[in-house]
Amino acid sequence: MRKEDCFFSLTNLPRDINLPEKIDYPHFYAPHQLAQIAAKELQKELETRNFNHDFGITNSQRNGAIGKMFGVLVVKTKRGELGYLKAFSGKLGERNFHDGFVPPVFDLLEENGFFKKEEAILNQYNEEIDEIENSEGYKSLKKRIQELQTESSKKLGNLKSQLKAKKKERDALRENEKSQLTESEFSILLEKLKNESISQQLEYKRESKEISAKLESEKIDLNKLELNLAELKNQRKLKSNELQNKIFDQYIFLNQKKEKKSLLSLFKDSIFKIPPAGAGECTAPKLFQFAFLNDLEPICMAEFWWGMPPDSEIRVHKQFYPACRGKCEPILNHMLSASSVGINPLNVQENPNDLEIIYEDEWIVAINKPSEFLSVPGKNLSDSILTRLKSKYPDATGPLLLHRLDMSTSGILLAAKTSEVHKILQKQFIDRKIKKVYHAILDGIVEKDTGEMDLPLTLDVLDRPKQKVCFQEGKKAVTTYNVLKRKNGKTFIEFHPITGRTHQLRVHSAHHLGLNCSILGDDLYGMKDKRLFLHACQLTFYHPFKKKEVNLNLDSNFEALL
Fold first, then answer.
1. pTM for the whole thing?
2. What is the mean pLDDT of residues 301-314?
């Protein structure tokens, strides 16, 4: 596809716009004004253009609809002209190519390409497997054997019960006759009972062997079919793996120096070792690939969601999102040199001069954790509440911190000075006896005054550290809430987390099955602001030595901001 077909000029720009010095860190950023202008142009186009795809924008029920990630990359030509490229993730309307959008890095759907031919072979395996599994002969054989197994189990169970009953009768007879018979008569009786027992055991074994033989005879034909199925499935797996690796080898990514690397080589040192499904099909790699192929200088980018959200992830129509880490980070690390990319905001935090202590005795200390400060040391940041506590209390024993707050969350954080107290209070946390209350401002209006959210959560392994809703594998997460005030399109709310999952309040607020209103300033699940407006304002626990309930309160002062 020619550069001219995908390059769209940016004209009539505001005079006060300055070009960014570096490309934003792609996995955590707020889009530059230039990228937002380009994104708005694309969104205007999407409102009227037909892609033969149901985005579900006006749907109340899914009915097969799903949104899609779109992206724009502002670029500069060698002549200094500013414009933008546009892309969509994966395929759209069962097509890889749409006029005006950059092409895929590799076209799986090419009519005469190897994928179509290899796919036909895989489909042949699928058809043969389906033909066997859905055949009447196979189904009837499985049903007959299942019935035989049930009958055999029942018959052997009855025989075993009879053996036990006969043994009980012999035991009773032996006990009754012991005092009635002479020694020689009793010996004769014992021999007789012994022979009966042996005879009955032999009969049971004979019946069991006969039943097993009959069952094995019936299994012969089924085993032949099962072996055939296993062989077909193994051949399909080998062919599928071979095809997958062949596909991975076709995804060759350029960097700014036009150096090439394949998808397999890029992921060999990642946590996945092999590329996850869909790697290389996201918008960011497509955009940068086209820019480098056509000698266009990347300036800034923006990706946004268009349409109905998926069931698990948090996606809001028209909202901007960074590139995912799981599928894109290894690729973009190669495509973009460190010198051309801005710093990762997650590696920067505010460092308060002193910790504000709101409660302290000889056993326990409670701190007012500032927003944008770590509870414990991170991978690239060493300063934290924990490191400050260790410095302040060098003689303290035990792990100190009893729980954590997200880096962006402010409020009450509890620590124990001794390992004994830590163990006791930790059990109160585990047993959910410690009551926690949070205040938050939500970016939207919550209609119900009170409610409960029960949405299980699990780590989104393709976009760490984000969490997602998963009803199959997620851990139970329950939150109750009370709306305190509504004003200016915002909701001041009180949360009572029953469980304490990572990002629980943030996901329950933003997810469409929850409150469908992200917490104001949530740069992971909503839109960046001057801070995340989430604050741990109350914590109640039972003091193990003072033998009384301690109720800590720390006002968020959020209400005054509405």
1. 0.77
2. 93
